Amino acid sequence: MDPRHPSSPQPVELVRDHTVYACVMGSRAFGLATEGSDTDRRGVYLAPTPLYWRFEKPPTHVDGPAPEQFSWELERFCELALRANPNVLECLHSPLVEHVTPTGRELLDLRGAFLSRRAHDTFARYAAGQRRKLEADVRTHGAPRWKHAMHLLRLLMSCRDLLRTGELTIDVGERREALLAVKRGEVPWPEIDRRMNGLVAEADEAARHTPLPPEPDRARVEDFLVRTRRASALAAVG
Question: In CATH, what is the architecture of 11-114+216-237?
């Protein structure tokens, strides 16, 4: 405990005591896990409202306490999801939910409110950055990091399908073996490069006819956040 603020929880306590939603992400959520795959855990915690009445605000995110664990404070999580951050949107759609409270259930019920055509731009920019890293590896070492190439192909597929259907699907399903062949280095880089180009073109075409709305439903998300903060404040003084 902080001696200056005895009632102020430490970051690890925020995750332990105030998590509203927790899930498994990474290869296990994508259906790409193999023997020895890590278990990546992601979560959302609701910092008690009275903590915001102080000069020192609660953290917007917390690493740990377990290995491969990362959590966002609810407001920060919502901000990133409204911007169509790929990692945050995929966290909301994980098929491997480990913990959910009534507040977390409300957050999951808002999944559709976060989705918009912004995803085309944010997924594409993120993918372009990852692709430049792979290309640098090819120039320097003669080959990409195969695991990263696999995950980039998966992300591009996810983006294309989201734009086509208006729904974000995490598990790769029947594409598992083809993607794992990339991870094992069985697919040459020129073929991977060709597939990436094709997926980018397909996503661009899908964006022209996507059922996604132009913008997320920010008002609906904000209403949820305000109600949640108010309930937390009332619980503290009650």
Answer: 2-Layer Sandwich (3.30)
Q: In this predicted structure, what is the pLDDT of residue 35?
A: 87
CA atoms of 173 and 47, how far apart (whole Å): 36
Interhelix angle 118-141/146-165, rounded to 10 degrees, is 160
Residues of the chain falling short of pLDDT 50: 1-6
pTM of the complete model: 0.91
Structural domain spans, the chain: 11-114+216-237, 118-207
Q: Would you state the pLDDT for residue 63?
A: 95
pLDDT of residue 236: 79
Residue 238: predicted pLDDT: 64
- How many Å is the Cα radius of gyration of the chain? 20
3-state secondary structure labels for all residues of the chain? CECCECCCCCHHHHHHHHEEEEEEECHHHHCCCCCCCCCEEEEEECCCHHHHHCCCCCCCEEECCCCCEEEEEHHHHHHHHHCCCHHHHHHHCCCCEEEECHHHHHHHHCHHHHCCCHHHHHHHHHHHHHHHHHHHHHHHHCCCCHHHHHHHHHHHHHHHHHHHHCCCCCCCHHHHHHHHHHHCCCCCHHHHHHHHHHHHHHHHHHHCCCCCCCCCCHHHHHHHHHHHHHHHHHHHHC
pLDDT for the residue 70: 97
pLDDT at 237 (0 to 100): 74
Q: How far apart are CA 112 and CA 211, in angstroms?
A: 12
